[in-house]
Write a structure and sequence with these properties.
About 45% of the residues lie in helices and about 20% in strands. By secondary structure, the chain is of the alpha+beta class. The longest helix has 26 residues, at about 370-395. The protein is globular and about 70 Å long. The structure holds 3-hydroxy-3-methylglutaryl-coenzyme A and NADPH dihydro-nicotinamide-adenine-dinucleotide phosphate. One of its GO terms (molecular function) is hydroxymethylglutaryl-CoA reductase (NADPH) activity.
Length: about 400
C-alpha cells in the first residue's frame, strides 16, 4: 500500500466517523492499526486544530500496542531519556555495575541521581535485598452479617488448598502465597497474595483471583461484589502496602566513608543526617505521609517510564523510608521500599524502547530462576533511589536545591 493509498483509507475512515457510521474504537475492525490511528489523528486535527505529525511518528508496532497496551491508538508520546551510573549494586539477584535508564522531564534529576551513583560506587557499592514478594488482589464479598462473615473467614482458612489449586490452574508462572481475610460488618475482603515471578503480575493475579472467587461463592454464603475491594490496594496510597508490602519489598543500604561524603557532596555526614531526621522522618510524620523519604518517587517514576512498568504504580513505589546515620568515619544510609511493583515480562516491557532499556540493565524477559530478573530490577531501582536520596539530602544541606534547578531545570 502506498502512502497515498494509506492516506486515502485514513481519510475515508475519518469521514465515516464524522458521519456517525463508525465509533472511534470500531476503526480497528475496518483497517490495520496504523491506518486506524492515522484516521483518529485526522479527526483530532480537524476537531482541535492540533497538528499531530510528531505524535504519528512512533517507533513501536501499532498492532502489538493495540492488542495489549492501548485502545483508540492515535500514535506515540516521547520523553527524554537520560542515564545515571555506573552504580555498583551487590544484591541477591543484582551483582554488577549498572547504568540506570531514566525517562524524565525534570532538569537536574538525572544529574542528582548520577551524583548519588558516583558517591555510592566510590564507596564500594550498595547492598540490596528483596525481602518479600506478593502481588495482591483483594475482592470484596457481601455477607448477611458478622456471624456469616466469620463463617466465611473460617472456611477460607480451612480451604486455602482448594483456592490455591483453582487460582494456580490459570497460570503457569504464578503461585498463591496466602489469602488473608478481613471482616468488616457485612463485608468480607480476601487479600490474595501471589508470587508472580518476573511479571509485575496484576493481570495474572486478577485472573487467578477471579477463578478463586467462583469457588468462594459456590461453597460459602458470600456474594462477590467487586473483584477489587481496594484492600489490594492498587494505585492508591494505602498503609497496608506500606506495612505488609505489595509486589516486591526491597531494601538497599550503603556505608560512605566520611571523606567521600565531604568530597562528593561538599557537606559532612552529620548535616545529611540532620536533614534526613528533620525532613524525612519528623516532617513526614507531621504531614501524615506514608513515604518517609525525599523523592524516591522520582527515581521509581523515571525507571518505570523507561522500562515499561505501570506508571500509576509509582503511588506504591513511593512507600519508602529513608534512614541516615552519621557514624565515626562514615555515613550509613538506607532506603526501604515496601511496595515496588515491577516486571521484566508482560505489560509495557515488550515495547521497543522499553525493552531496550531493560537490556541496558540486563534484565529483559524471564529470569533463570524465574523471578530473578524482576528481583534484580527491584534491587537496582532501590539502589537508584538510595542514590537520589543521598544527593538531594546533601543538596538541601548545602542549600543547592534551587540553584541546581535554576541552572539545569530552566
Ligand atoms: C545538580 C547537582 C548534581 C550538582 O552537584 P555538584 O556537586 O555541584 O556537581 P559537580 O559538578 O561537582 O559534579 C558532582 C557530580 O554530580 C553529577 N553531575 C553534576 N552535573 C551533572 C550533569 N550535568 N549531568 C550528569 N551528572 C552530573 C556527576 O555525577 C558528578 O560527579 P562525577 O560523576 O563527575 O564524579 C546537585 O546540586 C544536586 O544533586 N542537586 C539536587 C537536585 C535534585 O536532587 N533534584 C531532584 C529532586 S527535586 C524534586 O523533584 C523533589 C523535591 C525537592 O520537591 C522533593 C522534596 O520535597 O524534597
Ligand atoms: N488486571 C488488572 O486489574 C490490572 C492490570 N494492570 C496491567 O497488568 C499488566 C501487568 O500484568 P502481568 O500479569 O504482569 O502481565 P501480562 O498480562 O502481560 O502477563 C504476563 C504473563 O507472562 C507470562 N510469563 C512468561 N514468562 C514469565 C515469567 N518468567 N514470569 C512471570 N510470567 C511470565 C505469564 O503467563 P501465564 O500466567 O499464562 O503463565 C504472565 O501471566 C500491565 O499492563 C498493567 O498495566 C495493572 C493494574 C490492574
Amino acid at each position: 500500500m502506498t502512502d497515498t493509498d494509506a492516506d486515502a483509507d485514513a481519510e475515508a475512515l475519518a469521514e465515516r466517523v464524522r458521519e456517525g457510521d463508525l465509533r472511534l474504537y470500531e476503526l480497528d475492525d475496518h483497517a490495520d492499526a496504523a491506518t486506524a490511528a492515522a484516521a483518529r489523528r485526522r479527526l483530532l486535527e480537524r476537531e482541535t486544530g492540533a497538528a499531530l505529525d510528531v505524535t504519528g511518528d512512533y517507533a513501536f508496532d501499532p498492532e502489538s500496542a493495540a492488542d495489549a497496551n492501548v485502545e483508540n491508538l492515535v500514535g506515540g508520546t516521547q520523553l527524554p531519556l537520560g542515564v545515571a551510573g555506573p552504580l555498583a549494586v551487590d544484591g541477591d539477584a543484582a551483582s554488577d555495575s549498572y547504568h540506570l535508564p531514566l525517562a524524565t522531564t525534570e532538569g537536574a534529576l538525572v544529574a542528582s541521581i548520577n551524583r548519588g551513583c558516583s558517591a555510592i560506587t566510590a564507596a564500594g557499592g550498595a547492598n540490596a535485598r528483596v525481602t518479600k514478594r506478593g502481588m495482591t488482589r483483594a475482592p470484596v464479598f457481601r455477607v448477611a452479617d458478622v456471624t456469616e462473615g466469620a463463617e466465611v473467614a473460617r472456611w477460607v482458612d480451612e480451604n486455602v488448598e482448594e483456592l490455591r489449586e483453582t487460582a494456580e490452574a490459570t497460570t503457569s508462572h504464578g503461585t498463591l502465597e496466602d489469602v488473608t481475610h478481613y471482616v468488616v460488618g457485612d463485608n468480607v475482603y480476601l487479600r490474595f497474595a501471589y508470587d508472580t515471578a518476573d511479571a509485575m503480575g496484576m493481570n495474572m493475579a486478577t485472573i487467578a483471583t477471579r477463578a478463586a472467587c467462583e469457588v468462594v461463592e459456590a461453597e460459602t454464603p458470600a456474594s462477590l461484589v467487586a473483584l477489587s475491594g481496594n484492600l489490594c490496594a492498587d494505585k492508591k496510597p494505602a498503609a497496608i502496602n506500606a506495612v505488609e508490602g505489595r509486589g516486591r519489598t526491597v531494601t538497599a543500604d550503603v556505608r560512605v566513608p566520611r571523606d567521600v561524603v565531604e568530597e562528593r557532596f561538599g557537606v559532612a555526614p552529620e548535616a545529611v543526617a540532620e536533614v534526613n531526621t528533620r525532613k524525612n522522618l519528623v516532617g513526614s510524620a507531621k504531614a501524615g505521609s506514608l513515604g518517609f523519604n525525599a523523592h524516591a518517587a522520582n527515581v521509581v517514576a523515571a525507571v518505570f517510564l523507561a522500562t515499561g512498568q505501570d506508571a500509576a504504580q509509582v503511588v506504591e513505589g513511593a512507600n519508602c523510608i529513608t534512614t541516615v546515620e552519621a557514624r565515626e568515619g562514615e555515613l550509613y544510609a538506607s532506603v526501604n521500599l515496601a511496595s515496588l511493583e515491577v516486571g521484566t515480562v508482560g505489560g509495557g516491557t515488550t515495547l521497543p524502547t522499553q525493552a531496550e532499556a531493560l537490556d541496558v540493565l540486563g534484565v529483559r524477559g524471564g529470569g533463570d530462576p524465574a523471578g530473578s530478573n524482576a528481583d534484580e530490577l527491584a534491587e537496582v531501582i532501590a539502589a537508584g533511589a538510595l542514590a537520589g536520596e543521598l544527593s538531594l539530602l546533601a543538596a538541601l544541606a548545602s542549600r543547592h536545591l534551587s540553584s541546581a534547578h535554576e541552572e539545569l531545570g530552566r
